[in-house]
Design brief:
Strands 1, 2, 3, 4, 5 and 6 form a six-stranded antiparallel β-sheet that branches. A five-stranded antiparallel β-sheet has the order 8-7-11-10-9. The chain has a five-stranded mixed β-sheet with strand order 13-15-16-18-17, with helices on one face. The protein has 13 helices and 18 strands. By secondary structure, it is α+β, with helices and mostly antiparallel strands. The radius of gyration is 33 Å and the shape is elongated. About 40% of the residues lie in helices and about 25% in strands.
């Protein structure tokens, strides 16, 4: 199915502000559809005088008219004159007689979509009359509020461009609870669900005729944090969202101010009990904080181990023992660096490009013994899961250290280059130096030392990849490493190819 932008570009030439206005409308017209118990179809006039449907919305409070999507279709012949008149005269038009769709009748109304005083599209409001009956008080209030919003659309007053509904989850919908307010913030009507929400919060009795902001002020506990925007939302003065929490209950409120020719005449307030949702969010935040604290403590413990190894190496008299402890200390420090990075993020992933630059420079400086060695990192590693980050960091540290100690041994300067190529979960890394190269007869390996054994084991078992040593063109050594990384969020063992 084509998107709104694609259809608008294909059939008409809308300015960017007009197109953005239609996007804002479609993004927030579900509340209008639910209040009016009607399907909404957005018809865009085409360059050749026709109309094309670029968006549609079905009510969650009543029966739909269109069981199949009609986006991308052209307006029926019998509906086109009404749409054209509404667009030309810039006013709402209702059909005198219902239109029949199969076995049920549909009441149709055309409402112009106005921006900056111009009608740029038309909304067809279609109500299924198949289950028509005497409307209840709740339905009458729904429809009256929906009519107010449709009138605002025809005057260019809805949607509100600055409608900050907020990033928090749990946005209320019409069926969750609705309160109608007058211009002074007094309650004109409260749906049963909305009344239950405020009763759970601690309010007593009916809300009709009372100032809602005074009701809420009495419910808020002393010394409890309060959102600065809450009074504006509760009085219906701003199209924003806020949360009210008291006595272990959390309500999410959204205000939709009702205006008439720029003057505020009231508001629709949607409310939803989000107590369980907020409780789960707090649990997740607590778990995230705990995990970060664990990574922080592991990092501190590893740094303590590295310090003990450093103290022990100073007591060693043989060069071989000192070198062995120095290598162990370097490996422990690399693992600690991974945990330090994990302790600073909410996700169990590591931005490896930041980490690899620090760890490789540290490894080169330690192994160079006074020589000037330059490390160059090209390409991108991307995000690496915590399960793979430690193994990959250790492997790269070992390869760079080996290149400096053996490839650049006895030289005053040199360069170690690391080239990373990432395609989804497949990683290819080339570590090259401009040193003396591999010893004769080394073939595809680099010896049988402990570092080489560690690298081979980690690449094969932890990174599920391959590694090859070879001669670099122009002199030096080149190591090619491939790895199939785990996709962050998947279980261990479920990695991409």
């Amino acid at each position: 199915m084509s998107t709104l932008s694609e259809l608008a570009e294909r059939y008409a030439h809308l300015d960017a502000p007009d197109l953005e206005w239609l996007h804002l409308l479609v993004g927030d017209w579900q509340v209008v559809s639910d209040l009016t118990f009607a399907d909404l179809v957005l018809w865009l006039p085409t360059d050749d005088g026709d109309f094309v449907a670029i968006a549609q919305c079905r009510p969650s409070t009543g029966a739909t008219v269109h069981y199949d999507d009609i986006v991308g279709s052209h307006a029926p012949e019998g509906q086109r004159p009404q749409l054209q008149r509404s667009l030309t005269e810039v006013r709402a038009l209702r059909s005198r007689e219902p239109r029949w769709y199969g076995a049920y009748a549909v009441r149709e109304e055309a409402i112009p979509v106005v921006r900056a005083g111009r009608a740029i599209a038309v909304i067809a409001r279609q109500t299924n009359l198949g289950g028509a009956r005497t409307p209840s008080r709740l339905e009458l209030n729904y429809v009256e509020a929906g009519d107010d919003l449709m009138g605002m659309i025809s005057r260019g007053e809805f949607p509100a461009p600055n409608s900050a509904t907020g990033p928090r989850r749990g946005a209320p919908r019409v069926g969750d609870g609705l309160v109608r307010l007058n211009s002074e913030g007094e309650v004109l009507f409260s749906s049963p669900n909305a009344l239950s929400c405020f009763h759970r919060l601690g309010a007593l009795g009916d809300l009709v005729g009372r100032s809602l902001v005074e009701v809420v002020a009495d419910l808020i506990e002393q010394n409890s944090p309060v959102d600065e925007s809450m009074p504006l939302v509760v009085m219906g003065r701003a199209p924003w969202r806020t949360d009210i929490e008291a006595r272990g209950v959390a309500l999410s409120l959204r205000a939709v101010p009702l205006t008439e020719h720029g003057q505020r005449v009231g508001a629709v307030l949607l409310c939803r009990d989000v107590s369980e949702l907020r409780r789960r969010e707090r649990e997740l935040i607590t778990k995230d904080a705990t995990i970060r604290e664990i990574h922080h403590r592991v990092k501190n413990n590893l740094q303590t181990v590295a310090a003990l190894l450093r103290l022990q190496s100073r007591r060693m008299s043989t060069p071989e023992a000192k070198d062995a402890l120095a290598e162990a200390m370097r490996r422990v420090s690399t693992i600690a660096l991974v945990h330090e990075t994990l302790s600073q993020t909410l996700d169990e992933t590591v931005p490896f490009d930041d980490l690899v630059g620090r760890s490789l420079r540290l490894a080169a400086d330690v192994a160079s013994a006074g020589a000037h060695v330059r490390t160059v990192v090209k390409g991108t590693f991307g995000l690496v899961s915590a399960e793979d980050a430690t193994a990959l960091a250790l492997v790269l540290t070992e390869l760079v250290t080996n290149a400096v100690e053996h490839g650049l041994s006895g030289r005053g300067s040199g360069t170690v280059e690391v080239l990373a190529q990432r395609e989804e979960d497949h990683l290819r890394v080339v570590v090259a130096d401009d040193g003396v190269g591999l010893p004769e007869g080394a073939g595809g390996g680099a010896g049988s030392g402990l570092g080489t054994q560690i690298v081979s084991t980690l690449v094969t078992n932890e990174l599920r990849g391959t590694i090859e040593w070879g001669a670099r063109e122009g002199g030096g050594t080149e190591v090619v490493l491939t790895a199939d990384l785990r996709t962050p969020g998947r279980e261990a063992g479920q990695f991409g190819a």
